[in-house]
Specification:
Elements (H helix, E strand, L loop, with lengths): L2 E6 L5 H14 L5 E6 L24 H6 L2 E7 L7 H8 L2 H6 L6 E8 L6 H14 L3 E2 L8 H4 L9 E4 L5 H4 L4 H27 L1
Parallel strand pairs: 1-2, 1-3, 3-4, 4-5, 4-6
Length: 205
């Protein structure tokens, strides 16, 4: 298992940009590769029917993607300080993987984007950790040895990569900042190295 599953939901593109930066970090680690997947939106009336393959972007995630991965990066925009319903809906269907322990012992990271500076990015990251902890996963964050964590004027937290979309100004139209991208790449690389070392340790034992 050399794949890191980068699983996200994105509405306006910022979370997707973070996902691609994390995937870049994963791919920079020898022997590891990113498997990027998304989830479809959910309907407010009933379960929506989506095509098997989205019109653009990565394929929709399947439960086997979780089983086959060596680690997981989970991303969502903030929704009142919590993850988006579309991502939670997918996670709510992972009871078979919880019962089998398919994710137990694997490393995981989280990432998010928010439309305002105090829009709940940190609570969203923390809330996204909860189902991963129930699955027995080990949380990997961003250490302060990453110097941009102390100098960023945009997103970035020790809990995981983040983006602050400053609505209406030029920075908001340009996508994620250089600091946000660098921290996301660093998180992806750290997650991949952790997963690689765990896999190697299990093989030697």
């Amino acid at each position: 298992m050399n794949d890191i599953l980068v699983l996200y939901y994105s509405r306006h593109g910022a979370t997707r940009e973070l996902a691609l930066a994390i995937a870049q970090g994963v791919d920079s680690v020898p022997g590891m590769q990113a498997r990027v997947r998304t989830v479809p939106p959910v309907s407010t009336v009933c379960e929506a029917t989506q095509p098997d393959i989205p019109a653009d972007g990565p394929p929709y995630a399947e439960l086997r993607d979780l089983e086959e991965c060596a680690g997981l990066a989970l991303g969502s925009p903030t929704r009142f300080g919590n993850m988006a319903a579309s991502l939670k809906y997918f996670l709510d269907g992972t009871t078979p993987q919880w019962l089998s322990g398919a994710l137990a012992g694997k490393p995981a990271s989280v990432f998010t984007s928010t439309g305002s500076l105090h829009g709940g990015q940190e609570t969203t990251l923390l809330s996204m950790m909860l189902p991963l902890l129930h699955h027995g996963m080990m949380i990997v964050g961003i250490p302060y040895t990453e110097s941009r964590l102390t100098t960023t004027q945009t997103g970035g937290t020790p809990y995981g990569a983040s983006h602050h979309a400053r609505t209406g100004d030029e920075a908001g139209r340009q996508g994620i900042s250089a600091d946000e991208k660098a921290l996301a790449v660093a998180l992806g690389a750290r997650l991949a190295r952790t997963a690689r070392d765990l896999v190697r340790g299990a093989q030697t034992n």
